[in-house]
Here is the input.
Amino acid sequence: MSRESFVFFLGFIVLFTPFLGIPRDWKEIVYMCAGTLLMLVGFHLRRTAFLRSIDDGSGERRNDVFVESARTPVRTKASAHESYSEATPQSE
Here is the structure.
């Protein structure tokens, strides 16, 4: 049974549970189990759809790469062997 069919089957159970004549405590258990299973299967379906969307077909996944465009880090505190003038940023 595919995951999509499983979701449909659970929806069918949730739809007809109130009309089956089972005790209220059992209905609550059925609803809790069906809801938990729907959440897990839904999460799995979303995850596989996302992974399928970033797959480029060769087995590798595309991703966006962020690159910082700063030239060099600016030092703010002088170390013990540097003078204060070396540690302060120079304006250009």
